[in-house]
Design brief:
The protein is an alpha/beta fold. It is built from twelve helices and nine strands. The strands form two sheets. The protein has a seven-stranded mixed sheet with strand order 4-3-2-5-6-9-7, sandwiched between helices. Helix 2 packs across helix 3, helix 7 runs antiparallel to helix 8 and helix 11 crosses helix 12. Bound molecules: S-adenosylmethionine. The site of S-adenosylmethionine has 23 residues, from strand 1, helix 3 and strand 3.
């Protein structure tokens, strides 16, 4: 059985997992990290400390961690919060995690719940989480964040590590080049802010692209008579043809260019504008404008 010693690169009192530990654990479990599941494990204690510190956790919080993997971030989170609920899709990793925590943080083992599940589908957790802190699997990062914000209203804030380009998109303001569907939908739930860039060599295996940190704080969605689904449908339609004017881009969604123009006018939005300049409240007004036309 692997001897988990480590203090590689770690200057705090509490040991974290280093490169040697991660490789030993992976070898012992006979796992080959897969791209499909976005399995890039953090091997650097300083990066873990940076993530945990940027998350701004209070000691009383319950943290939802998606994809704990071999436990690198889980250890740091248990040091900063009251409880961690870790949702992992890979049964081998999920099964091993309690053992790793029991060995590295004997006093903290009963503050961890491991849920073997797909974070895209999870509907119930053993404790309502107040924060989401995760090194997310990159190919599903945006839908995971949006789904969790929708499903768990107790989530008040969080910090996620995603592909750097995706971090820019999530935090982009209207009018910027990277502003798009993820930016507007994320803004429905929360205020997102870029919180740093992380290099490739803190992971094993090292990804080919840089990662970015995004911090968010929940806010009330725009006040509107339209449903979230209706607002999201306008957003999808507007960005499906982002180079077109809204009158043209929303023609299919509204039924005709004239109907789109009427909904836009009711919303106080120039039909010649493009979706990339509108904030989430304007999209909500357009959905409302269309609704008013139908009743
Ligand atoms: N937190 C660990 C770390 O920082 O070293 C691992 C992060 S790794 C980027 C992503 C993790 O998410 C992997 O453990 C992977 O198995 C898990 N994962 C991938 N897809 C998932 C899903 N849909 N739901 C839950 N976990 C998932």
């Amino acid at each position: 059985m692997t001897e988990l010693s480590t203090s590689e690169g770690n200057t705090s009192a509490q040991p974290l997992l280093g490169a040697g530990d991660i490789r030993r654990l992976a070898a012992e479990l006979d796992i080959r990290p897969t791209k499909t599941l976005g399995q890039n494990f953090v091997i650097d204690g300083n990066t873990i400390r940076r993530i945990v510190s940027a998350a701004g956790l209070k000691g009383s919080e319950t943290v939802l961690e998606v994809g704990p993997g071999l436990g690198s971030l889980t250890l740091g989170l248990l040091d900063a919060a009251a409880r961690v609920v870790a949702v992992e899709i890979d049964p081998v990793l999920a099964e091993r995690l309690p053992d790793t925590i029991a060995r590295m943080r004997p006093g903290a083992a009963d503050r961890l719940d491991v849920v073997l599940s797909d974070a895209m589908r999870v509907t119930e957790l053993p404790h309502p989480p107040t924060a989401l802190v995760a090194n997310l699997p990159y190919n599903v990062a945006v839908p995971v964040v949006l789904n969790l914000l929708e499903r768990f209203p107790s989530l008040d804030h969080g910090l996620v590590m995603v592909q750097d380009e995706v971090a820019d998109r999530l935090a982009a303001p209207p009018g910027s080049k990277t502003y798009g569907v993820p930016s507007v939908k994320a803004a429905w739930y929360s205020q997102m802010q870029k919180a740093g860039v992380i290099g490739m060599n803190v992971f094993w295996p090292a990804p080919k692209i840089a990662s970015g940190l995004v911090r968010f704080t929940r806010r009330e969605p725009p006040k509107t008579t339209a449903s979230r689904e209706e607002v999201f449908a306008v957003i999808d339609a507007a960005f499906a043809q982002r180079r077109k004017t809204l009158r043209a881009a929303l023609a299919g969604w509204a039924g005709s260019p004239a109907a789109a123009e009427e909904a836009l006018r009711r919303a106080g939005v120039d039909p010649r504008a493009r979706g990339e300049v509108l904030d989430v409240t304007a999209f909500a007004r357009i959905a409302e404008g269309r609704r008013a036309l139908l009743v």
